[in-house]
Write a structure and sequence with these properties.
heterodimer, A: mainly alpha, 3 helical TM bundles of succinate and fumarate reductases, B: 250 residues, five-stranded mixed beta sheet, 17% strand
């Protein structure tokens, strides 16, 4: 059974060895999707602080201003940009647009993501 | 041959059906210009006659010798040793993924061939139809009708490399979907579109493009899958309007 398709083999999705950019994009999309889902859950938990009174909320806001949390926020922004822009690439290629340049599209969009991350990082940490 | 000699270690997967997989090492003196299949054959001929592997034509026509070479799907008869390893290094040979192992490097491709058959994938088509639309025809037909073999040699490399096929045994897979696309191009048979229009058909593809990356025969299954999606969407839209017309007339 080791060699046959099975849902338990989902870990192979995340194995980048011997694979090409199309698979790296596939892996990035899955990792960022999991990260964003986890963030959504954490975000809802954090918002629930609002219901516990002004003091609890103020404490949470203080925590949110710490560098570790800000770094986490930068990761969320990065994941959102990677997932969103790569999603546009997949939507286009899924209907035959740019299939033959999908690798270049991926590289170009990731350059945009990198630029976006740098801009956000500067605005979040540059003035600190 | 180059006259250069390399010393390589072939780590070959050994396995009986559902039994545990082990790796057996064989040391070989090879010419780096030789092909991976030559090395495997030499192991079988001079070191271990019990080694099971498939091969036939030795020139990428039969598609029998697809294997995993250092983790990547290769047609071993056209893969030079120098392109996948170096002197004093290891060459890891495993059976294709996503197929049941019969023995060692031999996998059971029965179900795959049945699906190819159902897709009515032709072996011989007109010269123009055999080419992808963005390819130039290999020579000018000058009004004459030429035929040639289709590119797909049914080696199964694309199925082995596809991440969606790792987890779904019911997925038709890249080669079958490419076969459906090519058959539909020839026949315009809408039944073929319906064969691919379900969750284990074109919609299971997650756009990793690994099938086209490993295809040794210029089929470009990923491009064909995307083209098939377009055709299916157009077919669905046409059906939608046809139904509306029918209702209005009624």
């Amino acid at each position: 059974m080791h060699n046959q398709p099975a849902p338990i083999h989902f870990w192979r999705w995340f194995d980048p060895r011997s694979h090409k950019p199309g698979t790296w994009a596939f892996i990035l999309n899955r990792i960022t999707a999991l990260g964003l889902t986890l963030y959504l859950a954490m975000h809802l938990v954090a918002l629930s602080q609002l219901a516990m009174g002004p003091a609890a909320y103020d404490n949470f806001i203080q925590l949110a201003k710490t560098p570790v949390i800000k770094l986490g926020e930068l990761l969320v922004i990065s994941a959102g940009m990677i997932h969103g822009l790569n999603g546009i690439r997949i939507a286009l290629t899924s209907f035959g647009i740019g299939v033959r340049i999908q690798k270049q599209l991926f590289a170009g969009l990731m350059v945009l993501v990198l630029a976006g991350i740098l801009i956000f990082a500067f605005s979040m940490f540059g003035g600190a | 041959m180059s006259g250069i000699r390399w010393n390589i270690t072939l780590m070959v997967s050994r396995q009986q059906t559902d039994g545990p997989r082990t790796f057996q090492s064989f040391t070989l003196d090879v010419d780096p210009e030789e092909f991976v299949l030559d090395a495997i054959e030499r192991v079988w001929a001079f070191q271990d006659r019990s080694l099971c592997f498939r091969h036939a034509c030795h020139h990428s026509t039969c598609g029998a010798c697809g294997m995993l070479v250092n983790g990547t799907e290769k047609l071993t008869c056209i893969t030079p040793i120098k392109s996948v390893t170096q002197n004093d290094a290891v060459l890891k040979i495993e059976p294709l993924r996503n197929f049941p192992v019969v023995s060692d490097l031999v996998v059971d491709m029965g179900q795959f061939y049945l699906h190819m058959d159902a897709a009515r994938a032709s072996q011989v088509v007109g010269l123009a139809e055999a080419c992808l639309p963005f390819e130039k025809e290999p020579f000018e037909s000058k009004g004459k009708k030429f035929e040639r073999l289709v590119d797909c040699i049914e080696c199964g490399c694309c199925v082995s490399a596809c991440p969606a096929a790792h987890t779904s045994s019911s997925y038709l897979g890249p080669a079958v979907l490419a076969g459906i696309q090519q058959s539909n191009n020839q026949t315009a048979d809408i039944n073929l579109l319906e064969m691919a229009d379900h969750q284990d058909g074109v919609w299971r593809c997650h756009s990793a493009y690994e099938c086209s990356a490993v295809c040794p025969s210029n089929v470009d299954p990923a491009w064909r899958i995307m083209d098939l999606r377009k055709k299916i969407v157009v077919h669905r839209l046409k059906n939608l309007f046809r139904r509306k017309e029918t209702i209005q007339h009624a």
